[in-house]
């Protein structure tokens, strides 16, 4: 419960909120929120009540984490909320870096954001993360109470960040203790005679997911499956990694393999919403030069044939005909040529694709406009980012950086640009990793929104968790992006009309300095907010 102080000459709204605040801990690079068995922060009570009310949820480099403020729109005399002077919600102020102080001596900036809900764009499918082998194992190191905190933090709609999607690996990925697939033995077994029950690792994931749905009270999760590699005997190189292709004689077997997995998951109680044509096909063509984990190489020509003659028909003629098929599940540099080449190789092949799945890793030098071309050319197909993680590139720290705001900003920058370019949803990578960023069988360590502390009695919620939550919590499936534009290059914005009609306006202040923001909504009028440097806000109003 927080009570805001009133300052002379400023009309501050005194409000209380039921959220459990962040229990902050400062590391060298910034602040994390700590959860233990008995305590974990939540985000609650963020519904505006009256027609003119707004609720602002704020996080910042300086330590705000889902701080909730309330106020009123007015066309006559705008109310100012000054977060910077509102000390009680700034939980901790880490020492300013030299650079922050230098920049900080310049005066604050002004910005205006205009929102027009009558201009609408794409519909949102949702947000989620991945229950990899490593995420599943990390969860199992925690007490049941902490596991539940993780589930609620991600999937609860009224306490957490309301994820509604979950990606699963079909067989292994690099975030496992070893590469694996179903039916590794017997070899050359085209009938997949040994693919008769779920691997114990998958059976455990199913149990965890059932607990997740129960504890987060979220029964509408879109499950999405991706395979990294078939058993080695189906591949031309008979190895997990390296240059590979699917042997022609196993094209149908590999389609049947996916169907078997769908059947076994279904029998275990999980119905998939979507399935991929396979993880990062380029890794098995050229990527293996730097990427050492399991892969299967495809070029668009071979994938078109497999999709149109095997995978597509096999699924469409099965009980699972309504499942969404997504591809090419690689970096967006392959767009839009990949689908073009598929279509010109086998006419009609791309009609089996319901959506375009992409990974974010090279986004910093491939502009988001790549999405436009594919959207325009393949109208009707949704575009989902199906994997993202920070710290995978050369010169980056290949591990979690506890408290780092910069990685949260990387995500925010991508969200802001991609949602302006037709993106419908976002699935992040591992839900939870250890302090090293693993386990990973090829030491491909990366960051994650939640990190398990070495001794397993605590979890750390990274700034990244909050950055994602500023979008995911307020962009439920069926939300529609509406027009919002900012007068300042470093004040990024995106606005969404939620299914209940209310507006969620996300504002990212990338400046080091305070920004005095005026929001002009074409229906509601004006509000003024003072946004601290390096902060992210979601403003909700009817
Ligand atoms: C759990 O965290 C809360 C909030 O930080 C703290 O008050 C409590 O003492 C912690 N419990 C244990 C057992 O450490
Ligand atoms: C911001 O706006 C105020 C008036 O609203 C004005 O006094 C001030 O000079 C402006 N600052 C900048 C940097 O433009
Ligand atoms: C079937 O697979 C299991 C491992 O999943 C293996 O232990 C067993 O040997 C396989 N059976 C045959 C006949 O190869
Ligand atoms: C956790 O373990 C890793 C090694 O896996 C080590 O580098 C790190 O310093 C440990 N963290 C703490 C807080 O002890």
Cα distance spanning the termini:
24 Å
The 3D shape can be described as globular
CATH C-level class of the largest domain: Alpha Beta
Multimerization state: single chain
**CATH H-level superfamily title of the largest domain:** Glycosidases
* Hetero compounds: 2-acetamido-2-deoxy-beta-D-glucopyranose
CATH architecture type of the largest domain: Alpha-Beta Barrel
Order of adjacent strands in the largest pleated sheet: 4-3-23-20-19-18-6-21-22-5
Please, how many domains? Answer: 2
CATH topology of the largest domain: TIM Barrel
Radius of gyration: 24 Å
Share of helix among residues? 10-25%
Percent of residues in β-strands: 25-35%
Quick one: how many beta strands?
23
Sequence-ordered SSE layout with sheet pairings:
Elements: E1 24-27, E2 30-35, E3 53-60, E4 67-72, E5 80-82, H1 98-104, E6 109-123, E7 126-130, H2 133-141, H3 144-155, E8 165-170, H4 200-215, E9 222-227, H5 251-267, E10 272-276, H6 300-316, E11 324-331, H7 337-345, E12 355-359, H8 369-377, E13 382-387, H9 405-419, E14 425-430, E15 432-434, E16 450-452, E17 459-461, H10 463-472, E18 480-486, E19 491-497, E20 503-509, E21 515-521, E22 525-531, E23 535-541
Helix pairs in contact: 3-4, 5-6, 6-7, 9-10
One 2-acetamido-2-deoxy-beta-D-glucopyranose binds next to strand 6.
